[in-house]
Amino acid sequence: MALPDPLPLLAKCPVVPVLTIDDPKKAVPLAEALLAGGLAAIEVTLRTGAAIEAVRLIAQNVPGTIVGVGTVTKPSDIDAAIKAGAKYLVSPGTPAELGRALAQANVPSIPGCATASEAMTLADLGFKTLKFFPAESSGGIGWLK
């Protein structure tokens, strides 16, 4: 079974801002401003307690925004993000349990990896698009060549 592909969702987005939102009241105005500036896709990181509420508010109130959730680190993050309205998921790294859960999610996912072995493991799970993270400290462009 093919996994949901994130590329069609994000292909027309020149940049995807990665946001850490501390105050849910700022989420909708921020998403509206980014959308007005031509940035339809955003990634809200799960680095604050306000993140899931911010995603919910954006998903409900800014229909032109493709809101994703980043810093997904455990399977329970997946459920919370999808219930809040996330259209895609991003993880910084992908332990086995998280990889299996992302592969079962009904939204596109971009799992993180830093080594060839991790990339191969994720490919075996069916992922075609990966996040090279942390890119700079893992060798950056030179490593990819």
Short description:
This protein is of the alpha/beta class.
Sequence-ordered SSE layout with sheet pairings:
Layout: H1 7-10, E1 18-19, H2 27-36, E2 41-45, H3 51-61, E3 66-70, H4 75-84, E4 88-90, H5 96-104, E5 109-110, E6 112-113, H6 116-124, E7 131-132, H7 140-144
Helix pairs in contact: 3-4
Describe it.
The protein is α/β, with parallel strands linked by helices and 145 residues long. It has a single domain (7-144), classed as TIM Barrel, CATH 3.20.20.70. It contains seven helices and seven strands. Strands 1-2-3-4-5 form a five-stranded parallel beta sheet, with helices on one face. The protein has a two-stranded parallel ribbon with strand order 6-7. Strand 3 (66-70), helix 4 (75-84) and strand 4 form a beta-alpha-beta unit. Helix 3 runs parallel beside helix 4.
Task: Return the average pLDDT rounded to an integer.
Answer: 96
The CATH homologous superfamily name equals Aldolase class I
Q: What topology, given as strand order, has the largest sheet?
A: 1-2-3-4-5
Give the H and E element order. HEHEHEHEHEEHEH
Helix-strand category: alpha/beta
How many runs of DSSP E, i.e. beta strands?
7
Shape: globular
Which segments are poorly predicted (pLDDT under 50) over 5 or more consecutive residues?
A: none
Oligomer: single chain
Q: In the CATH hierarchy, what is the class?
A: Alpha Beta
> How many helical stretches?
7
Could you give the distance between the termini? 30 Å
Domain module count: 1
What gyration radius follows from the Cα positions, in whole Å?
Answer: 15 Å
- Sketch the major β-sheet: 5 strands, parallel
